[in-house]
Design a protein that fits this description.
The structure is a homodimer. By secondary structure, chain A is an alpha/beta fold. Chain A is 50% helix and 16% strand. Chain A contains 38 helices and 33 strands. In chain A, the strands form 7 sheets. Chain A has an 8-stranded mixed β-sheet with strand order 14-24-23-16-17-18-19-15. In chain A, strands 26-27-28-29-30-31-32-33 form an 8-stranded parallel β-barrel, surrounded by 6 helices. In chain A, strand 11 and strand 12 form a beta hairpin. The interface between A and B is large, with 59 and 58 residues.
């Protein structure tokens, strides 16, 4: 018996029997096909149809684009089943069956695959159908759609040619919209289309409905390997060997008069997550009219008044589907002569904001567990709540250009680019922030949309291509700004009198749909969203990895704590040195001619540093605070060498032009000062400062400096402790590469700590530890843990040295090329390179804990807020990740995901154990 | 029964029974004591005596400087044994026994420990001894020596005070030398000495011989912890817990008239290794007179004429000792009234030249095996043969200052420093080459001698302190330049009319003993020493590690091959780019405005590179040649940024002073050129070039460049192959950190290689591989070995990144401080840091060979010529080390040592296996 390639929608049990779990059924039938079958099973009204499996597609492609044995035969069998169910027959002019042919891969890839409607029409059938329906306009509109879609998708005729015919017809008929065109117009258009097909391909349009079906099926199969689909899969990380299924569905028509309609709707609001149907529909139209955004749609709520009973039925179905799928649904529907049909359902795409609210609500509704809610919200989605938003005051004063649909939240500011290529080029090559502006977007535009900061279209609705893609990729977008007149030839757009040229700045508000002129300032919003707080609190219940924050100032520390930080993993003391009133003292210290001068300057810094630390301890009452001693090379506190050389050269040139002695005296004083600095900078200059005199090396060369810092830390800690604040200072020594460095510094510094506590007559608990940011430190972590009481991975530096890549140079240089060419899979400065840097970290943790089993180990590099890295740190068994305050909520969620993944893996292992037991 | 602390010289069997092997006997009795006992056993005439063990010393020191139970009692018992043997009695005025008390640790530490002679003398005994010998002058001379040594060593009276008394006495007696002083003079001196002791210490000189003995024993014990001894042990790497033994020996006197003498001699020439007694002696003197270098000694050959029978006896004993110890001996002897006594023997210190010849000769004489000979010559000693020597032509024209004894070979050029502190300060802090000049040297001077490039003294002989230390540490030295008048107050030295001030340059020839004025040029000698060639050929027989060389030019390659290199491990192609006629083309390539210009310049370089490679292949016929593709960042080929900024500024200033238009035009053209370069340099500048766009990264960004190099390599290889030369090119890609980099480059380059071979119609064997010089490469060596056919550890870069230390900056900066303070045990750029960098190498080798078991792995960093590193590479199982041609012989020997050490360890393991079986 031949393999079963084709499944009727009511054969879902057979598919399950063959494939196994539902995931495999989805892989076999594609997401759309599986759902149509599933809907059929639970009694949702779905037009009869069948699915040609993804296996058939793969077999077809593997066989060099020829049908494997049985596929076509089974398709014909299934067709005759549908004919029985509907009582209609394909190609039977008396009672013709029309079908659609749609692709449907395992993962939803909107607009990427090709669809053909109205298969079964030809001149003869059209005549019969007119006889049957009495609606010639409908029939010829349907017929021309078949020829148009078949022509462009299957036969490769450029779609613009067809559109031009329609536009010309509109002009001739002197009407503005397609709906005003008459039956004769469409008949003429259809005729013209068929001529175009013949001219372009050299062959007639296939009149045989079975040829149409076969060719359409093949077109879907082939489109799997089309460039657009391929690029999309690459961008979205979908495997290329999945294949697509083909769904053949009985046509139902939303364009059969005013008791017919078609639309798409989400079971909840896809932007906000509110519990309400959200979507658009058109009376007397076919589905593609809605998605393409060509006609202005009506909101789904209008259906309530227009067809109240149908609205109620649709609402019930939506609830039933939500309950069945335990998720928000994105549904396509058609009403044919007052009968509701569901054509598709799938988990709806939504904004981060909606994702969070829906997850929280569904827990309350008993649909999903807390863990499921946590799992559904991706850590990156929390980023939305930290997205830039337009500054409120600036927006008041800004010039409003127009308002459109707020389809993807967040603010975007950038220069206008009128096509995808320009947008991509400006963004990637010139590093400009770009807003991509189009009348409407198409799959071809995705590369530009991905590169843009924001998207603006003059047409389309909430479910238009532009809206879907923008939401999926988290790009702020405003669509359907109908006042906007975009002229792609002159490269400008106008709203009334206002002309905006390509390259001009505009600002979008994806939350309100407003578009402003110019470059508005933005801010990061507060994130006290109650749904988010719920999800995060559930995340905290499951995660085992602590989340700390990197903060240099008390205000940052406070915010970090509000965001849930459980400690400070990195206080960079040198940031304090750069403050206006301090820098001159720091420079005096560096330029000191002798140790007396140097110590005098250091003394001056002591009370300032002490003040800094007091503020931090107060903000972090009862939580650990890791303070890193001075790290950067000293020349960073002095003017740049090149600048000084240039200034001196300029001063000398200028000297030639002075006339009075006092001018010359003044210049000379300047020259002397600059010269002095130049000498200082010269003596400190290094060929490779990143590998130079910094970190612990500084502390060893100028122990007075780090001793002052430790004194300031402990004086501050003692003062706070006396006030009743619980302090946990941890002193972190940076850039250790050899345990002896740590011994020398730590001994000297711990003596200071003890001295201060004795002076103050109070004992506080503290730790001394080190950054692990040099490969050698990780390699000899067993020796280092003998001295250090804690480790903190400084993954920025560790990545630089492990890769031998200077971040500053490379991220503006060859690293860009490496990432573009895929030589490196990820930017190692954003996501930990597990194979290399990660191996060192693993070694560092293991060796360190061999020596000191209770060793506290964390990470404080910028990677600490990257979800993939958080997952890795969880697997390594770190105690905490530390990241910027704004990344703390993201890390909390990422840590929960990591813990849940662990739990799931353990469960799988348990199962396996049981199975083999 | 109390522990046995004291061993008579004839109790060597007991010592062996207690301690075990001879090594342990030496640890127990010290080197000197063990040898005295051993000599006693084999019948060499040694005065009766005994040794207080090192265990007694350690117990004494541990007990807070008090005698442990039994020590003193056993000393008294041993003393009475000696009294029986000699028939004399300590303190018996009628027939007094006199003894010496000398230190003797396990390892010879010449001059570091303290010696006291003539113990047993007091006023009464002196009178009795005069009666017995009838020689009052001898007795009082001996007596004053006891008081002087005891006073300075045990009681801490400054020795200068005693010397001043003698000088005054000489003046009063109006004589020039001590030997002209009379019995009365010495009696008076003795009296005065005793007064000085009383004045200085507040106590009388101890008249009781037993008190003398006890206090002397304690003084030796205590001297183990003296600063001089401590510093010496630190410098020589000797453990501090060994302790010293005390040897009490019956006094024999070389100063009992003209039938008495004393001297020291080596059984072979310590400078050249020639087979002849070499040493000095003095008639009618005590041993210290010889060593101190105060009196001008006679060469040992004179003894042949003076006392022919005794010379013969001494020669026989020397041969017997050599045969017994299978090594050249350094002996102290005394002739008392025509009777020869050996007071000490030990393995003689010798120059590298002598070491090599003696090892080779002793194999011929059947005394030692070839392996033993190889083991005896330290790899560092081969360095002597590569030591700088004075340029022959320059020396002919140079001004000869004086000639002294050539006690330690090699040339030294530097500024004169008249004391150890100055020498050390100038050398360490100011980095100056220093020649330390002293009338004679003392143990206090060692730190200055270690810091100096050369040593020059006006007094002393071949076995003087200066000569011994210089030879031990391989420092060129000339001693005993009696014409030299050194004035430590005016800080100058004069020879006749010539005045040389402190800080002036002089040049020494340690081979000839000549001293020249000024800074003479030096050269490295040819090393075709026949003894060395023998030893090296034996080394080659045992070693398993290959030795290759780093060479960039055919001339270097030829030399490397002569020195025994078995391949070229590193040809740095970019060195060729710096040649005068090429640099402008390279700069044109870098500054090219477009790819046409760039490729045109690259085309120009092709024939030049091809020529380079042909020369190398010819020189290395039949041996592998690893050619590294371009490595350094491109800005290295352009003028320095700072220089350009400065030049431009200068040009602009100068512009103000021009008058004619043509001057201004000329300046403008200059400015334009410089400005052009400045822009180029600016676009290439990097914050950390060491971690920047270099190595494989360059090849990926400008593939035309590396493709040209590969084309040149293969065109050259094909040409040579057609001439009948066997070529083994290996193309090495530098700075790989990710396997993908290697894939991209290697694929592109191997295509070029194949293309060339096809063009040339000839196939040659070749390899493509990579440097492992980035931690990530070592960590992912399994992945990299999937592509690379060979690895070569670039340990310079690997050390930089593993430690996070920029070599250029650190070796002039904090690394100096780290080494001075012992924070790092070795300079990691000289000797591989086994714990850190070594761990990565180990990982790299293991992972690489997991993927590719036959992976060829070597090292081409500068460490490749460092013996410790060679040993490590042997243990890692590398195929070869590659080093500079001049280090090749050193590495050959080091590799042999590593193999022998392995063999020995395996033998030990085998023994253990047998023992436990």
């Amino acid at each position: 018996m031949a393999k079963k390639w084709v499944y009727l929608f009511n054969e879902v049990e057979q598919a399950e029997a063959y494939a196994g779990d539902w995931e495999s059924v989805r892989a076999l039938l594609g997401g759309k096909g599986a759902n149509l079958a599933d809907m059929t099973r639970i009694g949702v009204p779905v037009p009869p149809g069948f699915t040609v499996s993804t296996e058939a597609c793969n077999a077809y492609l593997a066989a060099g684009e020829t049908f494997p044995e049985g596929v076509w035969e089974q398709e014909l069998e299934a067709l005759s089943s549908i004919e029985q169910m509907t009582g209609k027959k394909l190609g039977d002019a008396g009672n013709p069956l029309l079908v659609s042919c749609r692709s449907g891969a395992k993962f939803s890839m909107p607009g990427m695959m090709d669809t053909i409607l109205n298969i079964g029409l030809n001149d003869e059938v059209a005549k019969g159908l007119i006889k049957q329906t009495g609606d010639a306009r409908f029939v010829y509109d349907s017929y021309r759609r078949l020829v148009q879609m078949f022509g462009s998708v299957v036969l490769g005729v450029p779609d613009e040619v067809f559109e031009a015919v329609i536009t010309a017809r509109r002009k001739r008929a002197n009407v503005n919209s397609d709906s005003e065109l008459s039956a004769e117009d469409w008949q003429g258009v259809t005729q013209k289309f068929k001529e175009l097909v013949r001219t372009y391909t050299g062959n007639d349009f296939p009149e045989d409905p079975f040829d149409q079906l076969k060719l359409a099926t093949e077109a879907v199969f082939k489109s799997w390997n089309g460039k657009r689909a391929f690029d999309y899969r690459n961008a979205a990380g979908i495997r290329h060997d999945l294949g697509t299924a083909v769904n053949i569905v009985t046509m139902v028509f939303g364009n059969m008069g005013d008791d017919s309609a078609t639309g798409v709707a989400m079971s909840r609001n896809a932007s906000t997550g509110e519990i309400e149907l959200e979507g658009d529909f058109l009376i007397n139209a076919q589905g593609e009219d809605v998605v393409a955004g060509i006609r202005q749609t009506e909101p789904i709520s209008h259906l309530k008044t227009t067809m109240p009973e149908l609205y109620k039925e649709f609402e019930d179905i939506a609830k039933r589907l939500e309950k069945h799928y335990r998720n928000m649904q994105d549904m396509e529907f058609t009403i044919e002569h007052g009968k509701l049909w569901l054509l598709q359902t799938r988990d709806g795409k939504r904004t981060a904001q909606a994702e969070v609210r829906i997850a929280a609500d569904m827990v309350e509704e008993g649909l999903i567990s807390k863990e499921e809610a946590v799992k559904r919200v991706q850590p990156e989605q929390v980023d939305f709540f930290l997205h830039p938003q337009l500054d409120a005051r600036a927006r008041k004063e800004a010039q409003l250009v127009a308002t459109g649909l707020n389809v993807s939240p967040g603010a975007a500011v950038g220069v206008v680019a009128f096509d995808a290529d320009t947008a991509e080029r400006w963004a990637k090559e010139e590093g400009r922030a770009v807003i991509m502006v189009r009348p409407e977007t198409k799959p071809d535009d995705v590369h530009g949309m991905l590169a843009a900061k924001g998207i603006l279209t003059s047409r389309g609705g909430r479910t238009s291509h532009a809206a879907l893609v923008a939401r999926q990729f988290g790009t702020p977008a405003v669509v359907g700004v109908s006042e906007l007149d975009i002229d792609l030839d002159t490269r400008e757009m106008t709203v009334g009198e206002l002309v905006i040229k390509e390259g001009d700045y505009i600002s979008l508000d994806g939350n309100t749909g407003e578009v402003f002129l110019g470059k508005l300032p933005t801010f990061i919003p507060d994130m006290n969203n109650p749904y988010l707080l719920k999800v995060l609190s559930w995340a905290d219940e499951v995660r085992t990895l602590d989340v700390w924050a990197n903060a240099d100032y008390p205000s940052d520390a406070k915010r970090a704590r509000e965001y849930g930080a459980q400690g400070l993993g990195l206080v960079r003391t040198e940031h304090m040195f750069f403050e206006t009133e301090r820098l001159p003292i720091v420079q005096r210290m560096i330029m000191a001619k002798n140790s007396t001068e140097r110590n005098e300057a250091i003394e001056h810094l002591l009370p300032m540093q002490r003040g800094d630390f007091e503020g931090l301890f107060r903000a972090m009452d009862n939580l650990p605070v890791i303070i890193r001693l001075i790290d950067p090379p000293l020349h960073e506190f002095l003017p740049a060498y090149e600048e000084l050389v240039q200034d001196l050269a300029d001063l000398k040139v200028r000297l030639q032009h002075y006339h009075t002695m006092s001018e010359i005296d003044g210049a000379l004083a300047d020259i002397r000062t600059k010269q002095h600095y130049l000498e200082g900078v010269e003596s400190l200059r290094e060929a490779n400062p990143m590998l130079g005199t910094r970190g612990v090396r500084l502390g060893i060369l100028i122990p007075e400096l780090t001793k002052m810092q430790v004194r300031a830390i402990f004086e501050a800690a003692c003062t706070c402790a006396k006030e009743g604040i619980t302090v946990h200072p941890e002193v972190m020594i940076p850039l250790t590469s050899h345990v002896n460095e740590l011994k020398v510094q730590q001994n000297a510094l711990e003596a200071v700590a003890k001295e201060v506590m004795e002076e103050q007559g109070i004992t506080i608990s503290y730790k001394f530890g080190t950054m692990i940011e040099i490969p050698r430190a990780a390699l000899t972590a067993d020796e280092i843990a003998d001295v250090a009481q804690f480790f903190s991975f400084g993954t920025n530096d560790l990545t630089q040295t492990t890769f031998g890549i200077s971040r500053d140079d490379a991220e503006a240089g060859f690293l860009v090329e490496y990432l573009n060419r895929g030589i490196l899979p990820d930017n190692p400065f954003a996501t930990i390179d597990e194979n290399g840097v990660g191996k060192l970290m693993d070694l560092g943790v293991k060796l360190g804990r061999e020596t000191r089993p209770d060793l506290e180990v964390g990470i404080c590099g910028e990677h600490g807020g990257d979800p993939k890295t958080v997952d890795f740190c969880h697997r390594l068994g770190l105690n905490y990740v530390s990241c910027s305050p704004f990344r703390v909520p993201i890390a909390r969620l990422a840590a929960a995901h990591a813990a849940l993944r662990d739990k799931q893996n353990n469960a799988v292992e348990d199962k396996e154990v049981i199975a083999t037991a």
